[in-house]
């Protein structure tokens, strides 16, 4: 918020910036900034000019939970902090040998990272994450746990970051909106793999599951931002009925059907582990539940895929397995500079490190079979 004082229409006084004060107010539980109450403390004879608060939300990209997390946090900002705030979004993806989050991305008056790794930057105002592998470096983890933070939160016990954010904002900041309940519940179902069965997850009958397909596969950043904004005010069914979303969804669904068949032909199941290699096929993203739909008897899945920015090894536990989980998949992936959760993890290699990725995938598959 900017303040300019003047004693008459033709005489300008000094300018004072109170944006930092406004930001500071939002950093403590039970306080808010609405663009008005600060001005009320100023002499009424002073002419006040305001500018919009800029909020930057960095979120896990191409992830339903990441977008839903951004939506719930943004709804809080719009309803409780500053209704006129200008909120911008930046998607974050895991990169090979990633050591830090670029400070230049934290370009707002308020900067938040949701459903992604921690940054020790002094520019970071808010942080929420629930991944076991939440820190890029040991010193980042030490800094976080050594501090006392009013607006930075971490709890790997949560299945979804969206539910984590919703409950923290309700209990500590008094923000709760029933219209967001369905979004929060679906984020928890999707990120926590709380489907009734693999058939439900793969056949995509619910609007939320159709949306997952769009979110994970689209390369249209404008569409991603539109979905985040729509999540704050519209139902999931209304969003999926949108012409722009349907235009993106229909060809993606056809590709989804073809990918099911491709994985069926490429996969092998040995010792309770499904393994498949999609390098050489035009598959950037696919439902991680397809292996369990095709091979319901398996316990784990390991796969290799290639995108323009990385070679990816994906590792997962079948949530409907009759056998108990015997391995922490995040811990296994961390050995290769990857991470995730106990039940699902991933590792990123450079696009030219296909053979290295394959070696890691085969090593993990052998370990899971043991």
Structure description:
The chain is of the alpha/beta class. The chain has 3 domains: 2-41, no CATH class; 56-245, Alpha-Beta Complex (inorganic pyrophosphatase (n-terminal core)); 267-369, Diaminopimelate Epimerase, Chain A, domain 1, CATH 3.10.310. The protein has 13 helices and 13 strands. The strands form 3 sheets. It has a 6-stranded mixed sheet with strand order 8-9-10-11-13-12, with helices on both faces. Strand 9 (273-277), helix 11 and strand 10 form a beta-alpha-beta unit. Helix 2 (64-81) runs antiparallel to helix 5 (181-191). The protein is globular. It starts with a strand and ends with a helix.
What topology does this entry show?
Layout: E1 2-8, E2 11-17, H1 19-25, E3 54-60, H2 64-81, E4 86-92, E5 110-114, E6 126-129, H3 138-146, E7 152-154, H4 161-173, H5 181-191, H6 198-203, H7 207-217, H8 221-231, H9 236-241, H10 243-266, E8 268-270, E9 273-277, H11 290-294, E10 300-306, E11 311-317, H12 329-334, E12 339-340, E13 344-349, H13 354-369
Parallel strand pairs: 3-4, 3-5, 5-6, 6-7, 9-10
Antiparallel strand pairs: 1-2, 8-9, 10-11, 11-13, 12-13
Helix pairs in contact: 2-4, 2-5, 2-8, 4-5, 7-10
How would you describe this structure in keywords?
inorganic pyrophosphatase (n-terminal core); 3 domains; Diaminopimelate Epimerase, Chain A, domain 1; alpha/beta; globular; single chain; 6-stranded mixed β-sheet
Strand content: 15-25%
As for the number of domains, it is: 3
Calculate the terminal CA-CA distance, rounded to whole Å. Answer: 60 Å
Globular, elongated, flat, extended or rod-shaped: what is the shape? globular
Mean of residue pLDDT values: 89
Q: Can you name the CATH architecture of the largest domain? A: Alpha-Beta Complex
Structural class: alpha/beta
The sequence of SSEs as H and E is: EEHEHEEEHEHHHHHHHEEHEEHEEH
Looking across the biggest beta sheet, what order are the strands in?
Answer: 8-9-10-11-13-12
Helical percent range?
25-40%
Rg, alpha carbons: 23 Å
Please summarize the sheet with the most strands.
6 strands, mixed
The count of strands amounts to 13
- Per DSSP, the total helix count is 13
CATH class of the largest domain: Alpha Beta
Low-confidence regions: 1-42
CATH topology of the largest domain: inorganic pyrophosphatase (n-terminal core)
């Amino acid at each position: 918020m900017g303040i300019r004082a003047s004693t008459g229409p033709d005489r300008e006084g000094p300018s004072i910036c109170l944006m930092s004060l406004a930001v500071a107010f939002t950093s403590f539980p039970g306080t808010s900034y609405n663009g008005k109450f600060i001005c009320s403390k100023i002499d009424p004879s002073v002419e006040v000019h305001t500018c919009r608060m800029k909020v930057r939300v960095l979120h896990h990209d191409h992830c339903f939970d990441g977008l839903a997390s951004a939506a719930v946090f943004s709804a809080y900002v719009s309803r409780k902090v500053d209704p006129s705030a200008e909120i911008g979004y930046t998607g974050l993806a895991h990169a090979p040998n990633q050591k830090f989050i670029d400070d230049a991305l934290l370009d707002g008056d308020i900067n938040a990272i949701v459903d992604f790794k921690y940054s020790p930057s002094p520019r970071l105002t808010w942080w929420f994450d629930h991944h076991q592998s939440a820190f890029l470096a040991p010193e980042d983890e030490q800094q976080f746990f050594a501090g006392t933070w009013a607006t930075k939160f971490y709890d790997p016990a949560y299945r979804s970051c969206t539910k984590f954010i919703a409950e923290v904002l309700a209990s500590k900041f008094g923000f709760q909106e029933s219209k967001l309940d369905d979004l929060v519940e679906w984020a928890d179902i999707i990120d926590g793999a709380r489907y009734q069965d693999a058939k439900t997850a793969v056949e995509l009958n619910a609007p939320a599951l159709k949306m997952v397909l769009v979110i994970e596969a689209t390369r249209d950043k404008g569409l991603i931002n539109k979905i985040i904004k729509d999540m704050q005010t519209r139902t999931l069914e209304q969003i999926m009925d949108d012409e722009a979303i349907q235009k993106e969804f229909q060809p993606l669904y056809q590709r989804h059907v073809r990918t099911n068949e491709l994985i069926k032909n490429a996969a092998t199941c040995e010792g309770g582990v499904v393994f498949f290699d999609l390098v050489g096929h035009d598959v950037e993203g696919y439902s991680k539940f397809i292996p369990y739909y095709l091979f319901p008897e398996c316990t784990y899945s390991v796969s290799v895929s290639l995108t323009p920015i990385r070679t990816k090894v994906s590792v997962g536990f079948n949530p409907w397995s009759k056998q108990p989980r015997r391995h922490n998949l995040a811990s296994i992936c961390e050995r290769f500079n990857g991470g995730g959760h106990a039940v699902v993890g991933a590792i990123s290699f450079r696009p030219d490190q296909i053979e290295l990725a394959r070696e890691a995938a085969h090593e993990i598959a052998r370990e899971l079979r043991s």
